Task: inverse folding
């Protein structure tokens, strides 16, 4: 029997679209809105997955190369508008998707700029905290990038995390909760605040940009305790 792996239902009106093996890069469909669009070459997989559905908008959690790579092609092919937060607008429109990375000349940064980043596309709606998108509320979660946003649906606790937390070690692909790597993160301590903000929502289902979806049975709380303790110890050492 043919099993359609292009899209996986997570909850009512929520689908994961895995773009790379082991769920290492994902995008999501919430109702009629596509969240994130993988890398430059991801568009065929995305278009295949959403074939036959009526989409009305495409939004990005942030404008990094592995989230905006196919945004322009998707918006043009499906004739849908492109939305982002205000702080990501410039990168989303120029396609300068690695401009905030702390190490501009690092080989991985250069690789992503060349092979992953897609062209920019005009942003027609700027999202802010509390806005509603596809039945979800926008949560501002800056740190990994300056204008990162997440999406939360209170009624069943589904949270689209983006890259505030990863559920995968990007080098080994081993599944576990991680802070995003410093190499791609604008402000680690601000991101830690955003992790705490998301945890305070007590989400039940976590959908990550990188790594498999997690049905939370205390893993998130354990992870947050661990990183907060680590921070306290580091602060203590500095005193
Ligand atoms: Zn990112």
Result:
């Amino acid at each position: 029997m043919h099993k359609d792996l292009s899209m996986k239902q997570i909850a009512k009106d929520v689908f994961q679209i895995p773009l790379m093996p082991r769920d290492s890069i994902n995008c999501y469909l919430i109702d009629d809105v596509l969240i994130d669009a993988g890398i430059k070459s991801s568009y065929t997989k995305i278009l295949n997955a959403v074939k036959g559905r009526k989409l009305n908008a495409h939004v990005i959690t942030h404008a990094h190369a592995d989230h905006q790579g196919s945004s322009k092609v998707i918006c043009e092919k499906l004739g849908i508008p492109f939305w982002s937060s205000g702080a990501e607008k410039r990168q989303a429109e120029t396609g300068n998707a690695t401009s905030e990375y702390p190490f501009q000349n690092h080989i991985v940064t250069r690789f992503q700029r060349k092979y992953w980043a897609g062209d920019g596309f005009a942003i027609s709606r700027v999202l802010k905290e509390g806005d509603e998108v596809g039945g979800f509320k926008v949560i501002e979660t800056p740190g990994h990038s300056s204008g990162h946003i997440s999406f939360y649906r209170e009624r069943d606790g589904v949270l689209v995390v983006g890259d505030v937390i990863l559920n995968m070690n990007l080098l080994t692909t081993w599944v576990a909760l991680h802070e995003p790597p410093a190499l791609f993160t604008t402000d680690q301590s601000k991101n830690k605040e955003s992790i705490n903000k998301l945890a305070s929502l007590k989400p039940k289902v976590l959908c990550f940009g990188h790594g498999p979806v997690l049905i939370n049975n205390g893993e998130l709380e354990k992870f947050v305790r661990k990183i907060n303790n680590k921070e306290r110890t580091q602060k203590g050492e500095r005193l």
